[in-house]
Amino acid sequence: MSRSRIVIVGAGFAGYRAARTLSRRFRGAAEIVLINPNDYFLYLPLLPEVSAGVLEPRRVSVSLAGTLRGVRLVLGEVDGVDLAARKLSYVDPEGASGELRYDRLVLTVGSVNKLLPIPGVAEHAHGFRGMPEALYLRDHITRQIAMAAGGEDPAESDARCTFVVVGAGYTGTEVAAHGKLFTDSLARQHRRAGSGLRGDRLPRWMLLDIAPRVLPELDERLSRTAHRVLTKRGVEVRTGTSVKEATNEGVLLDDGEFVPTHSLIWCVGVRPDPLVEETGLPSDKGRLCVDEYLQVPGHPEVYACGDAAAVPDLTHPGKYTPMTGQHAVRQGKTVAQNVAASYGYGERRPYKHNDLGFTVDLGGLQAAANPFGVPLSGPLANAVMRAYHLAALPGNRVRVASDWLLDAVLPRQAVQLGLVRAWSVPLESSSPETAHAPAWSGHGYGPDGNAAEKPSQG
Ligand SMILES: Cc1cc2nc3c(=O)[nH]c(=O)nc-3n(C[C@H](O)[C@H](O)[C@H](O)COP(=O)(O)OP(=O)(O)OC[C@H]3O[C@@H](n4cnc5c(N)ncnc54)[C@H](O)[C@@H]3O)c2cc1C
After folding, report:
1. What is the position in ligand 1's atom list of the atom closest to the CA of 10?
2. Residue 12 C-alpha to ligand 1 middle, in angstroms?
3. Domain limits of the chain?
4. Does the model's pTM come out above 0.90?
5. What torsion do the CA atoms of 162, 168, 173, 175 make, to the nearest 10 degrees?
6. How many angstroms is it from 152 CA to the middle of ligand 1?
């Protein structure tokens, strides 16, 4: 008789934790299958440090095979769920299709970049939701500064040295805070090398949000700290402002100002992964509806949690839990306990969690944090934040800590490898975790899944 099979779709905060908890509970009594496009768990909160060259990309990519014992990893992206037949279909990284049957299904597919219908944005902006986008941004920033330093046209150099971040939530705020330090360091290195930027000016960073304050969704005290640190560092914070149009030459703001730039970084938020819609199950604003046990009503064998699920927030009746890693990871544990309970191992329990506070990484020795509601700023907040991340990372802790140490004593590396090109990280992607095929491709791919030819434009 075949073992019962539990399939988890998505190895992010919720899926990784669910797989780990289930493997410990079952110890081989059920088959646990984890399907994910990549072979790593991406620790998203540290991604801004990757785009700013503080951390090497593999530091925040924790090996699934290396850390999840008793879990079968299938590399693939699920593209359909047949609820009646209890099976799902997927495409593997080399384009082949496959099918998997399940007895229990846990959907933890997370979210993708949110789009707004603004002319030119889909073509000219890049999001910040996956590793390819972070690597693209790191190289793009490095290249812009190098080209500005070596260029002869002052207006073009100014445009290359201007970076516009839209969305001052925690992602946009952290990207701008780290980005400014990164570009300042690169500019100083070019200056020492003798190819200074015009008038020895430092690169310009703008952080826009339609909301009246940065970090609009967080405690106001965190907003004040972030605003103070950013403005002191030279980031232009424009609240109550948005983008009206994006073009090849720059960005038109809704107050009429035109900002010449080649860098529009889109951090306006996220929307649930489109796979939710594919299932045809009831959803609310794209999030799959579940009950407080993280079960899909009418389908007791299907569970969902994390960003992709509309989980009732029992601490704020009538609301759903926010899309944060803090909730996703705890929901991953609860969903595993409830799946185990459905086989008679323990009791099922409703999901309930009181927020423990938030940390916002402001680069250098700066951070804003409110652990257990206590507001902290400066190096103390930074120490709390780093300790929290090291504790929360399921692997690579020593590597992350050594990168932090090296960054404290060495200059950032002014090197761009240019392996992730602009066309491979389209903003409207439904899978920001993978770099994409160029739309122009006539030759397709080599056997390794890499593009056989590449365009000259980056
Ligand atoms: C830059 C950044 C910084 C952040 N900082 C913080 C922070 O400091 N604190 C905090 O609490 N939250 C933070 N968040 C939010 C947090 O990362 C998310 O809320 C959390 O990742 C959600 O967890 P999840 O498991 O639902 O989804 P994810 O962690 O996104 O995981 C989803 C997984 O599903 C996979 N997947 C998607 N579609 C498919 C498919 N069709 N088939 C198979 N697999 C699929 C993806 O590849 C991914 O591995 C941050 C987010 C970002 C982008």
Report:
1. 34
2. 5
3. 5-37+76-111+271-342, 121-268+358-424
4. yes
5. -50
6. 42
CA of 325 to the centre of ligand 1 (A): 7
Ligand 1 center to 32 CA (angstroms): 21
Could you tell me the two tokens for 247? 């073009």
Tokens of 160: 């290359």
Q: What is the topology classification, in CATH, of domain 5-37+76-111+271-342?
A: FAD/NAD(P)-binding domain (3.50.50)
**Ligand 1 atom index nearest CA of 48:** 1
Residue 307 Cα: closest atom of ligand 1: 26
pLDDT tens, 324-367? 999 999 999 999 999 999 999 999 999 999 888 999 999 999 99
Residue of 324, 327, 356, 434 to mutate, ligand 1, most atoms within 8 A of C-beta:
324
Residue from 8, 41, 44 whose mutation best tests the ligand 1 pocket (most atoms within 8 A of CB): 44
Closest C-alpha to ligand 1, atom 24: 110
150-163: per-residue pLDDT in tens? 988 999 999 999 99
Mutate to test the pocket of ligand 1, among 7, 8, 13 (most ligand atoms within 8 A of CB): 13
Task: Report the CATH fold assignment for 121-268+358-424.
Answer: FAD/NAD(P)-binding domain (3.50.50)
**Residues in contact with 416: Cβ distance below 8 Å, sequence separation at least 6, in sequence order:** 138, 139, 140, 142, 143, 146
Q: What is the C-alpha separation between 274 and 410, in angstroms, rounded? A: 42
